[in-house]
User: Fold these one by one.
Assistant:
Number 1:
Amino acid sequence: MRSATMVIDGMTCGGCVVSVKRVLERVPGVSDLQVEVGEARLTVDDALVTEAALRQSVERAGFEVEEVVWSNG
């Protein structure tokens, strides 16, 4: 398990936060999810999900992932 902070462009309101939270909640291997305007903090099971899958989920919701910062968790 690793922790990640995703810097997300295009989130401007509470509705955006809800949209990003909903898509990330559906990704297998994501836990301890906290989403605020501009970023998401989460714990990821590397055996179940890749960074590319996380990025694709957020981008399909209409937002751009600027950066993903990883730390061992």
Number 2:
Amino acid sequence: MSPGGPGGQHDGTVPAPRDRQRPPTAPSDQTASSGRAASPGRPASSGRTGRPPTTSRAEILAAARRLIDRDGWEALTIRRLAAETGVGATTLYHHVRDKDDLIVQLVNEHVDQVARPELPAGPRDRIIVAWTTIHDALAGWPWGAEVLTADGFLARLGDSALWFVETIVAGAVDHGCTRLQAVDLFRSIWYYTVGEILVRAHTVRRKDDIGDADSEFSLRALDASRYPHLAAIGDQWPARASLDLYPQVLHILVDGLLANATKKPR
């Protein structure tokens, strides 16, 4: 006999199982699970709480420039840049591969802002104008020249920088060099240009570190019997070293390299 109402009579009503009685779901859970708006009086969750802010390439490069200007380019690391921008290092790696790639991007951006010079008609003069512009653009950014000291950097340059390289190579070819001789000319003057920039930059930094007095040197104390010419120069060497002779030396290098490449065999 089935259990039921009074007297064991079944009233036809099936009692609901206890596990069907569920407590009401909290409004925030309903919102998260169903995607419906939160109940009035509660702010809707954006779903982005705790995520790092979106950082653009321009913001990363601007932060890198600030860090370099403040602490020097040697202090630039991906970790410090992440702290400067307020994002994780993983976010930065979406935009840069490593420190060298970051500096190359900074150099490319810097050169993008350099006005292309008006080129003269003569190929030799075009070479000199292009090199002078490159030198002046990098002289204030020696850390940019530092990262471009390894062969293979050309493949990482942007259009603006490559325009200068093309101008120099084209000028050499138009003057009578073969393309490979034009490469030799470019590389030779590049070594001089980068070396001149870095020597001056490191000299300034050394003076900042130890002071002007300690950084000065003299050849006067040398044994004149062993080093007669150096001893005679004496105090004139550091004074001469401070002169900016890049324009004169550039002309000499260009003229000498072009003449050697195009001279007629005897």
Number 3:
Amino acid sequence: MTTAPGGGGEAKRKKRRRRRPKGPTPPNLNNSATPSKNPAAKKAPAKRVYAKRVDEVSAGGLVIDSTGTKGLLIGRRDLKDQSRERLLWSLPKGHIEEGETPEQAAIREVAEETGIQSEIARELGVIDFWFMAGGNRIHKTVHHYLFKEVGGELAPQITEVDDVGWFPLNEIVELLAYPDEKKLIAKSGDLVI
């Protein structure tokens, strides 16, 4: 007498065995312990590729006009802006040439980028940051100075700068596009020369 499934009877169930196909056993394709006969299958561990480190040193700063009420900024087009209308305002600066001191480079770069002749009044500080460019990790150190205008006329260096302008000193921090420059000028205290 057979009982219905779940009917409470204690009938013995027959275990089903899995039948194996007759003939040779197929190779185990998933067994990684089996050595491969394909020499290309053996790969050396991938080497980690590091970007080359490049150190750059620049100098520049904030020029105060002859009235002592305005500061000089350079404007460059924001390449992330689709319209190319937005300018990013920053402090004039550039690379230190071989044989130059940071002070000499700062005076030269300000004149080249803005057309304004200046002299250094005091040091503002150093900004140090990293960025990627051309597949390299760039470590940039920028020496900043406070300058006093002594001559020249506003004339942006057309190959590097889109605009230059004098702005009220109390607006400089707000206008600066880069946080490190904002912080440097904000903590510099009195900008009167």
Number 4:
Amino acid sequence: MPKRADTRIVPRSDARGSMAKAEEFLTAADIAAAGAQWNACGLDAVHAGIAAADAALAAAAGLRSVSLDHGFAVRLLEANVPAFSAQQRRHLAGLLQMKNTVAYENRPVTETEARQLLDHARRFVRWARQIAGDVSA
């Protein structure tokens, strides 16, 4: 189990706010893709995945990662969310491995990269929606 110093206990209802952010970022990524704005599409897709991970973890375990290492959230999901499958891990990892490239490197995101990120985000957000959908007010 990951260090508790990098984890906060949160109400399961926090999943709603995180899921709303995930949906908003995903919509923004779709709009950016429609306008061939590949940098914006890629970054919004990554943020959609991060917010969806927060939603799933809050809904299923009442936890939130506060680590600066986004890979820590993957380990929390693996340890606390039984429905976090290898397929979901692949989608989230596909997003996280490109985060620094998309957000901080000087080179532009290619159309191919942006579309791959958008696909990962759509699939991961869909999964998180199922997990977070069980949260009551």
